[in-house]
TrEMBL record:
SUPFAM superfamilies for this protein: IVS-encoded protein-like
Name of the molecule in the record: Four helix bundle protein
InterPro entries, A to Z: 23S_rRNA-intervening_sequence, 23S_rRNA_IVS_sf
Gene3D superfamilies, alphabetized: 23S rRNA-intervening sequence
One Pfam family from the record: 23S_rRNA_IVP
Lineage of the organism: Bacteria, Pseudomonadati, Bacteroidota, Saprospiria, Saprospirales
Length: 136
């Protein structure tokens, strides 16, 4: 088996949970009608990919404030995905069981994103305070 470097975002619980949510969204949208391929299917898949992509991109930023901004962007994409999933349920493209599963994972990802953002901003403020103490 090949061994690869593990990047910091790959160790985050939120990123792991987003991978699960991504599989759920891809599986759910597989059964959407063909005419939705460039509508809800494309939008929902783009939104869920955006969540994990922003976490990955944010992890590459040196500034904790920048990292928190990317985490915030991920949350926006999560809410976009939820809105699209609810609409899909409203028009009978997503079943009761599927929307319940999606919402459960959206709640979990949202909780983890909130915790990550708070941690990033707390560490940013601590760095800022430490730097101001050392500046004459």
């Amino acid at each position: 088996m090949l061994k690869f470097k593990t990047y910091s975002f790959e160790t985050l619980d939120v990123w792991k949970e987003i991978r699960i949510l991504s599989k759920i969204i891809y599986n759910a949208t597989n059964s959407f009608p063909r005419e939705e391929k460039f509508g809800l299917v494309s939008q929902m898949r783009r939104a869920v990919i955006s969540i994990s992509s922003n976490i990955a991109e944010g992890s590459s930023r040196k500034s904790l404030k920048d990292q928190a901004r990317y985490t915030e962007l991920s949350f926006g994409s999560l809410m976009e995905l939820l809105s699209q999933a609810i609409l899909s349920h409203d028009i009978n493209l997503v079943s009761e069981i599927q929307i319940a599963e999606i919402r459960m994972h959206v709640d979990q990802v949202g909780f983890l994103l909130d915790g990550l953002k708070k941690s990033q901003l707390k560490r940013f403020n601590e760095q800022k305070n430490n730097n101001s103490k050392h500046t004459p």
